[in-house]
Amino acid sequence: MRIFSGIQPTGRKHLGNYIGAIVQYVAGQDRGEAIYCVVDLHATTVAFAPAELRELTYDTAAILLAAGLDPTRCLLFRQSDVPEHSELAWLLTSVTAYGDLQRMTQFKEKSAKQRELVTAGLFLYPVLMAADVLAYQADEVPVGDDQRQHLELMRDIAIRFNSRFGEQFVVPDARIPEVGARIMDLQDPTSKMSSTAASEEGVIYVLDATAQIERKFKRAVTDSGEGVYRAPDKPGITNLIDILAAVRAASPVEIEREFSGAGYGQFKGAVASAVIDYLAPVKQRYAELRGDQAALEAVLSEGAARARAIAGPTLAKVRDAMGVGAPR
Ligand code: AQP
Questions:
Q1: Which of 34, 54, 160, 287 is deepest in the core (most CB within 10 A)?
Q2: Rounded mean pLDDT of 147-157?
């Protein structure tokens, strides 16, 4: 079983990224051959600063290692170090429908937010994402719920390619966690927690100081009623229940039972302290790892060499099947 996922070095990683994706990456090391990638090429699809991008790539790699990725048990690399990703993305455009790309919710939302330029890269983002995964013949892709639509398109691309050019790709499945697949913004619990949120107050960053985490949970938007239980008209409390369930590896029902008589203030305090304890060891390891950029670079470049040994043969096969390039 091969597992692949990518994470963008855009902004600081938040609790949604952590619970929805990173925790699953760590668990993937025990479940199969795990391959993870910091997708810096994806980050160039929206406005970015070149020097910052490089730093954010190291930041993101350090967060992943601090969370528990172990380069002896998984493969971790930087997307742009493996040119097979971008070549395959181009080849896959030949079986990707323009109309499908136009329907992508993420493109619609992100293009609406761009002030200066809506890039063609943003439009083609899901094709590059398909190439990331398909190059490794991955069986499973751990992601948060917001990537569900991209995963479906990726499967369609693989199926269309296989039927046009012969069986070249494994058709991957999404692995979306049961609890915590969509952590919501604490200030606007109808929108997902996001690195591009309008205000930082609703976003818990993995590296936030204890006092910031306490303050953000204290100010988290709830409803005017009472009772700690999940309901469509209680998106704020529902989100806090999901967060506590995820960090305690419990079920939301267990959390509801435990806090059935509690007031909102008491409940928010409990969520804040659980999240603080949960992130403390990650923050400590991050500080140690981030201080040694040369060591981070070594992990990424060794990972890239091993990744190319897997993606290269896929590309050779695909080029042959498409009649592109000199015959092998
Ligand atoms: N709120 C979330 N809840 C659960 N999972 C989430 N993910 C993102 N937000 C949530 C999952 O995190 C992984 C990495 O996402 P990314 O590479 O898109 O990184 P990002 O740019 O930091 O993601 P954001 O915050 O979602 O930014 P925007 O909104 O600007 O794109 C993915 O598996 C994703 O599902």
A1: 34
A2: 98
